[in-house]
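[[Encoded backbone]]
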Amino acid sequence: MTLKSSLDDIDLKILDIITQNARIPFKDVAKEVGISRAAVHQRVNRMIDLEVIIGSGYHINPNKVEFKTCSYIGVFLEKGGLFSEVVEKLKLIPEIVECHYTTGQYAIFVKVYAKDNEHLKKILSNQVQKIQGIASTETFISLEQTFKRTIPVNS
């Protein structure tokens, strides 16, 4: 039995609604789904306990807080066994907002926000490329984020 099979159509409808608008009051969700506010609350808490819903909070628009350059860095390691050590060092760089262990050309792929290209250069030269175990990096600057969405739950 998969986790998704433990979710019924009402759970999936609730997920669909709250992923479109995380600030929607439970009373409005309840009205749209056709159950009580308390039932919505219980179902959301159950999905949090099951780790279907992870995290909550507000998303900050990087551009509005002067982080104008979004980039992705592919990281080549000297040896694959250094992955954990390198990741611990990457965690210390606050501008790195995502880190992925990947297949393919790079061992690690990170997403970075910098104030501008000069700031990005400093992050690369003074922090990322000085980490023991990193052989080299390849950087891609995002010119524009055209869309962002969560995964579909009703597919």
Notes: The longest strand covers residues 69-77. The helical segments are 9-20, 26-33, 37-49, 83-90, 117-126. The beta strands are 69-77, 96-101, 108-114, 134-142.
